[in-house]
Prior knowledge:
Layout: E1 35-36, E2 40-43, E3 48-54, E4 63-68, E5 73-77, E6 89-92, E7 98-104, E8 113-118, E9 123-129, E10 135-142, E11 147-153, E12 162-167, E13 172-176, E14 188-191, E15 196-202, E16 211-216, E17 221-225, E18 236-239, E19 244-250, E20 259-264, E21 269-273, E22 285-288, E23 293-299, E24 308-313, E25 318-322, E26 334-337, E27 342-348, E28 357-362, E29 367-371, E30 373-374, E31 377-379, E32 383-386, E33 392-393, E34 401-407, E35 415-421, E36 428-433, E37 444-451, E38 457-467, E39 474-482, E40 511-519, E41 526-534
Parallel strand pairs: 32-39, 33-39
Antiparallel strand pairs: 1-30, 2-29, 3-4, 4-5, 5-6, 7-8, 8-9, 9-10, 11-12, 12-13, 13-14, 15-16, 16-17, 17-18, 19-20, 20-21, 21-22, 23-24, 24-25, 25-26, 27-28, 28-29, 31-34, 34-37, 35-38, 36-37, 38-39, 40-41
Amino acid sequence: MPLGARRTLTTVALVVATALSLSLFLVASAGAVTTFAPATNFAAGAEPRSVALGDFNGDGRLDLAESNEASGTVGVRLGNGTGGFGTRTEFPTGGPGADSVAVGDFNGDGKLDLAVATELPGAVSVLFGTGSGSFQAIAHFPVGGVVSSVAVGDFNGDNRPDLVTSNETNNSVSILYGGSGGYFYPPEEYAVGTTPFAIGVGDFDADGDLDMAVANANSNNVSILLNHGGGFSAPTNFSTGTAPFALTVDDLNGDGNLDLAVANIASNDISILLGDGSGSFGTATSIPADAEPAAIVAADFNGDEEPDLAFANMGSDSVSLLLGNGTGSFGVGTNFSVGNAPRSLAIGDLNGDGVPDLTVGNSFSNDVSVLLNAPIADPSVGSLAFGSGTAVPQGSLSPPQALTIANEGSAPLAVRGFAFAGTDPDDFLISSDSCRAVIRPGVSCSVSVRFAPQAQGARAATLTALTNAVADPAISLTGSAGPLPQGPAGQDGVAGAAGATGATGPRGRTRRVVCGHRKLRGMKKQRVVCVVKARGARAHR
């Protein structure tokens, strides 16, 4: 089942018209570790109090809106689909103290609009979207007192978005039912606790109508207002920690009923209130938080199909992530640094990898931090050694050695390539790898490395996988290289051609031969005698 869509529950996320659907999030393997890449910060207006996400220009990518308390403006940046945002455009809201912003299609034209809660005078300003990322034709709708937050939901079932505001000076909430063409009817006001700061929307009694949960900062409780189809009941209050400042709605224990997680800014903790499906909640349990938790959201960040919690700590400039186990309990938090005094959070898949990311409004550093859910690249070994038993001869190639790179995170891992560095990077090579496709959480790929020494002796290098993980894995490579191998004796060569005739020697001396014969005495035979005489010399017999 897709991440974030474990059960069918009616919450505010189902009625806000944005390009993001939580049902598109990936499911990771059990035990996946969640981490975020270091924050990227984008300049905002003066004191951004609230952030929201939506596809404001219809390109299928999430865009960013921030409301700025000190400047009374809304800033909009169009998303690039990779986790970044373009140039900021600022729009006036028509009133000071833009404390909260919500997204919806309020005039039914298929283009997202913005609703902004302003402090003085107490009103909701609606900025109608053009579909190109711009906004125009501001409409103002008065409500009671100073407005601290605004939320969207279809409370009367007419398929038109309605607005609900928390009015901190009037100790009330106001509901503005939506009409045609972006018009909202005069508000209906309901009393709640003291200094209401935040609103959550969901069907707490499972009757098909959206109800409200309101965090009351100065009465240390949450008010539940049940929707009976024609109005809301008187509030039922449930105790929390000290100064509840924000809340989120989800089924935290998997029983099919909506629960609450409340951030208490003064007691530095999170209150968990488990719903029973009738609109009532059990006694709150407390989870320690960091300094001054001021915003909280729930989502399945690690892909195990159980909701996790992320909350912004205004006093420690961080966001804490607590992984849920599906029973309403949560593990130890991991903190991620953001800007100064984070006060708001929004969830969305900013880079199209199928897992939820975070945007954080930092009210004192006047910027928005983006935390991208990142993979974790984990190599099976930290080093490979070649020729440790028998040295690899210089100029030859060793047998391959294999390693794996596993994605232990909750976001898809992309391996762009490999790089060799160090003393002898040319002595090692990749002979094969299966890492060029996207590696889902819980899946690994393999790499084969060979040693090709260019010289004798000890050789060393470092192999780094170039990834989209927070840290690229590096493997140490060493090799022992021996002398060049001696080949077998060659065959005898072919016989050479005959040499040239030698030069004529010097001319010898002239000699003459004189021969004579005589008959031997008493014999019939004759004797022949020859004498060689040199010219001018005596004869020699």
